[in-house]
Design brief:
Layout lengths: L1 E2 L6 E2 L14 E2 L17 H37 L28 H20 L3 H7 L5 E3 L5 E3 H9 L7
């Protein structure tokens, strides 16, 4: 709203001059006028939820891969420790050597074990990225349980169901 400083007549904002005396109109500041506040940009709530969900899925995926690697290392160690001292390259207490090697596994060097673990870890990662449910079913133990640092606990069957239904997927 505008006002004539001479005659105090009020006019619409579109006029520049007073219609009575031709004086240049000035802006009328009415303390009772409604204030207009510019709208501010906000992030829609669904985008925030998607970001949180994506973060949780990422943490679960990284934790799952790490846990699978640890389970693989423990399983390999357990297998090797049950083979006896020869499988671990430890000296034997026996003074006689046996010649029957049909039931023993070949001794694996540290490098061979590292390569095998890397291969198994790569297979798990490949299975996760390609949603290879048969591969994950073969690689994960039946009593496998993933527990995240946030307390999320998933069994092998729950993980496979999440991947099967595409509620969780990796790119």
């Amino acid at each position: 709203m505008k006002i004539c400083p001479t005659c105090q007549q009020k006019y619409a904002d579109s006029l520049q001059f007073c219609l009575s005396d031709g004086t240049v109109l000035s802006v009328f500041e009415d303390p009772q006028a409604t204030l207009r506040i510019d709208a501010r940009q906000t992030q829609p709530p669904n985008q925030m939820k998607r970001g949180v969900t994506l973060g949780v899925v990422t943490v679960v995926g990284i934790g799952l891969i790490g846990l699978i690697f640890i389970v693989g290392v423990l399983a390999l160690y357990r297998t090797l420790s049950h083979q006896g001292p020869a499988a671990l390259n430890l000296p034997s207490n026996s003074s006689t050597t046996t010649t029957n090697h049909q039931n023993t596994m070949p001794v694996m060097s540290k490098n061979d074990v590292e390569q095998k673990l890397e291969q198994v870890n790569a297979e798990v990662g490949f299975s996760l990225v390609h949603s290879d449910l048969e591969g994950l079913d073969r690689l994960l133990a039946e009593d496998y349980r993933y527990v995240s640092d946030a307390g999320l606990s998933l069994t092998k069957q729950e993980i496979l169901t999440l991947l099967r239904t595409r509620n969780v997927y990796y790119e």
